[in-house]
Amino acid sequence: MRIALLLTACVLCLNAQAAPVDVASLDRGTWPEQLSSPALFDVASRAEILMFAHSLLASESQDDAALKQRLGLKIINRAATDDLRRRLWQRLLENYRFAQESCEVDASFCYLVESMDDLREQAGKFEVSQDSFYIAWAAPSRTFHERYLDELLRKAALFPQISSEVARFGEHERNGDEFNDRLFLLTFDGGPAPASGNTDWLADYLRKQKMNATFFALGSSLQTRVERSSVAEVQALYQGQCVGTQGWQYRSHSHWVDWQGSVTRSASLVQNLMPENYVPLFRPPYGQRRADSQGFFQAQGLQVALWDIDSQDEPGKLEADESAQRVLTLMLLWRKGVIVFHDTQGKAREALPMLLQATAQSGLGWQDCREAFR
């Protein structure tokens, strides 16, 4: 039985990798206004919500055959894609209600939305006229949201055989859903980088900005940093920051025989090295973890920390400016949540300052890493 399940998972993995969807990014230069006030953030937020809702509504008319063709898959979990759509609609309605609170200040993209039926109606007829101040944004945004929706639908179609951040397995898994409106948590995966590298730069930059983030460290990389420098230097590296674990190696924890050892070994290392910085959070590489792991994580006193805003800054994905613009667009769409960058990648060094500069006057808040997921 275990062999059969592993073979099925391998087939699905190959199926998933056969026709990857294009990674979505949007040139924010097509939007004609700076996000220089909370009200202008809301204008852009309303626009992105309506455009995404328009794409989401259109996708519901596709049958299984059309959806398989669209996503490049031979097998789909229709129940999971339907559940994803339901959750997306609920989030969009909540977000639009927040975004329309400033309609008295600026009425752009303001429509009467009091119920789900209202939102679906407005999404169905949403269109930007050719003489609109926002026309240059419309077509690129439509493309972005169609591609981004494909990313989400594809992950849902493969869930739970290939797990990802698109859905949770239980209450022990957290993704920022409970955050207040306009509140975001910065997180970094895959580190630490070698000494004097990207992790050092990012942690120092955050301290200068009087900000913090959660760094999910790999046990093997952290052990190497200690061996090549010292405990004191590693402690200084993460001063003022939070450190969780991503396991001992950056590999899927869904079918790895020693996945439990990977989690416990790396968590013990972080906790022993940096008890003041340690947070009891595990970030699964690739978002992949076992559906039956809740008991294990609860016994270890750990929560699984997922995300809902992916920078796509890994090698072969987006460039730094594209990554920053993708994150900003998703912040406008989701209005709260967990942002993930990779501190081993130089792209984050460019993307993060761009992101902070673009949102400096927009009324956003940055979640203290010590308070997140308590």
Quick summary:
The protein has helices at 2-18, 38-59, 64-71, 78-99, 116-124, 135-158, 198-208, 219-228, 231-237, 259-273, 294-299, 320-334, 347-359, and strands at residues 173-174, 183-191, 214-217, 242-245, 278-282, 303-305, 309-310, 337-342, 365-366.
H and E order = HHHHHHEEHEHHEHEHEEHEHE
Separation of termini? 38 Å
Strand content: 5-15%
Give me the count of strands: 9
Judging by the overall fold, what is the CATH architecture of the largest domain?
Alpha-Beta Barrel
Low-confidence stretches: 1-19
**What number is the mean pLDDT?**
94
Report the biggest beta sheet as strand number plus sense, adding barrel if it closes: 9 strands, parallel
CATH third-level topology of the largest domain:
TIM Barrel
Please, what is the oligomeric state?
single chain
How many individual helices? Answer: 13
Helix content estimate:
40-55%
Q: What class would the helix/strand composition place it in?
A: alpha/beta
Q: Please state the overall shape, judged from the principal axes of the Cα atoms.
A: globular
CATH superfamily of the largest domain: Glycoside hydrolase/deacetylase
In CATH, what is the class of the largest domain?
Answer: Alpha Beta
Spatial extent as radius of gyration = 21 Å
Overall domain count = 2
InterPro entries: Glyco_hydro/deAcase_b/a-brl, NODB_dom, Polysacc_deacetylase_ArnD
Domain NodB homology: 179-302
Protein name: Polysaccharide deacetylase family protein
Signal peptide: 1-18
